[in-house]
User: Fold this.
Amino acid sequence: MDISLKQVVDAFAEGLQSIDVGKIPHKSFKPGVGPYGEAEAVRLSLQYMRARSPELFSKAATKRLPDVLIPGQWALEFKIVRPFGDNALPAEHWSENILHPYPGNTSSLGDCMKLLQSGLSERKGIVVFGYEHVEAVVPLDTAIRAFELLAAQIMQVKLTPRVECRIQGLVHPVHQVLRVFGWEVLPPQ
Assistant:
């Protein structure tokens, strides 16, 4: 059974929402999924995905490269973007996680290059997840469009049209809206 990128994005968002509903604070931060670090959020969401949809995700595992491997289906890299911290103060360098346009770095653009050079046979994908206020003070849209533009025009990386899942009503006072974006990274023509 082929798993679509939209299925992955939606299931991942649902997994993050399940963490949020639990209201378990990460470290000494306020309750909610927003303050969780990227690796922990991915690990816990994947745990949820495997339990909720074993027919799709039972063999999915976290790795060093890629972040998540669904054998025979997807090699996925994940990035988190948060324009504001748990303390409601602006996070000065938040967009670097996706926009730093140099091969070998840890941004989503660098991850595109790593995936393309990995030799993995699975379809390759980038998943970016982030948080906004209900009335977005700093909308993620600009950074997301910049990622697509830099990938295509600077890095010569071909991405499929983006898929997105948006979930409102998170419990954290700053990270109120979850947005998860995904693209397939296509091999060079």
User: Anything to note?
Assistant: Residues 5-21 form the longest helix (17 residues). The chain has one domain: 5-186.
